[in-house]
């Protein structure tokens, strides 16, 4: 697809002197969305397809599926790690409040008591 067809598909409007942007792959309109910005490289499937059209003999391997034993062991361990990390965050918050009380509230209360006693 040439750059003009890409613009028509994406429903974007660029000036005619900016047609070179399509060659830089700054505009990558895929089937998932109207327009994807930012990636300077096309997807790996598109790159391999272009290499095949140039005469290379590259075939994509089928994606490997995660074995069942990984799911049976990994999911409970992951849940345990998430639970322990959540516990650490909650207990860390309580510890932070306690340390703030120790180092801020108690000296402030003592200073308040001292100043009130000096005022009387």
Overview of the structural elements:
Helix content is about 60%, strand content about 5%. With about 120 residues, it is mainly α. A two-stranded antiparallel sheet has the order 1-2. A hairpin with a 7-residue loop joins strand 1 (about 25-30) and strand 2 (about 35).
**Poorly predicted tracts of residues:** 10-17, 25-31
Element order, helices and strands? HEEHH
Radius of gyration: 31 Å
Fraction of residues in H or I helices: 55-70%
Q: Count of DSSP helices?
A: 3
The counted number of beta strands is: 2
Termini gap: 88 Å
Largest sheet: 2 strands, antiparallel
SS strand fraction: under 5%
Order of strands across the biggest sheet?
1-2
Mean pLDDT: 75
Structural class: mainly alpha
Shape: elongated
Q: How would you describe this structure in keywords?
A:
single chain, mainly alpha, two-stranded antiparallel ribbon, 3 helices, elongated
Task: Note the topology.
Elements: H1 3-10, E1 27-28, E2 36-37, H2 44-53, H3 68-119
Antiparallel strand pairs: 1-2
Give a brief description:
This protein has three helices and two strands. It has helices at residues 3-10, 44-53, 68-119; strands at residues 27-28, 36-37. It has a two-stranded antiparallel sheet.
């Amino acid at each position: 697809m040439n750059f003009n067809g890409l613009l028509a598909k994406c429903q974007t409007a660029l000036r005619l002197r900016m047609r070179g942007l399509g060659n830089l792959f700054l505009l990558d309109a895929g089937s998932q969305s109207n327009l994807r910005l930012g990636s300077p490289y096309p997807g790996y499937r598109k790159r391999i397809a272009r290499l095949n059209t140039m005469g290379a003999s590259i075939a994509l391997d089928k994606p490997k599926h995660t074995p069942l034993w990984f799911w049976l062991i990994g999911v409970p361990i992951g849940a345990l790690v998430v639970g322990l990390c959540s516990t650490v965050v909650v207990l860390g918050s309580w510890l932070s409040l306690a340390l703030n009380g120790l180092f801020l509230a108690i000296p402030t209360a003592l200073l308040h008591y001292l100043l009130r006693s000096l005022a009387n």
